[in-house]
Amino acid sequence: MDFKDLKGFEEDLKRVNEHIARLCSTSNENMQKMLDWVLGARGKQIRPILTLLCSRLSGKKVDATEMAAVIEICHTASLIHDDIIDDADMRRGQLSVRKKFSNEMAVYCGDFMIFSAIGRTNLTNKPWYKDMFGKLEIMCNGELGQFDSRYNTSITEEEYIANIIGKTSAMFEIACGAGAYEGKCSGKEREAVNQFARNFGVMFQLSDDVMDFISDEEKSKKSVHEDFWSGYYTMPAIKAFQNEEYGPKLKEIAHALRNGSKDDDFDAEINNIISISGGIEYTKDLVTEYGNKAKNALEIFKPSNEKRKLFEIVDYVGERVAL
Length: 323
Fold this sequence. Notes:
It is a single chain. Helices cover 71% and strands 1% of the residues. By secondary structure, the chain is mainly α.
């Protein structure tokens, strides 16, 4: 995404990465190798971008670059730990830390990133800093909720959305909320930003859910159907399970996978059932619904380039699954 029309924005994003490099440095050679590997694949950096954009919504000129860096470090560390739990081999288009350096070393790397960000930042007296840890606690609870629902073919849509709000939306709420606070937004404006972040987080996760069923591995940078095979049933599958005609067959496949079956035909069957049962289209509609909710939350703010960019990010996430 191009930010050339936002004065100083690309320079701010560069400063975010300079803060990340400073906070994630060490004299230990092995640790630095891992940190360099992680930071060499930065992804789209959507969370620091959101922090910077939200810090500008009220038109104030502030420096939110270090807070954006701390949030991105915590997010990246959580991904390293997620990959250990999921036995994931790839992350952001390259080998995951656990695959390249071992599970044990990946644990140390994730821990180091969190502790270094906490210990070295100059922002510990900021009110949002304590709130960040409260939201991180919510994120952990969301991850646990997801784990507790593993292999549960009867999980409801409401239960799944609640897990998303924890494991995905919480980090977006941290990123957007911290930016809004630093940007001197009013209480009502900060609540609006929080609602934007929560709905955007749900939209973002639902979009990923769809991508898991419509993308090939090269496009999605992850194994297609990886969640389903691991017993984590996302919205397209949840909707398909509820279908009276096709749900029983999908549950049968899920049960077989849980018991260790490796039938090569399962991928095609899973895709076919979820498609003809309406699971994919239903989830696409939810992506649109939550995207609209996210945009509507920002109506409190007057028109600006920053607000327009936030809308463009919402549209980008929606367009990934629109075809």
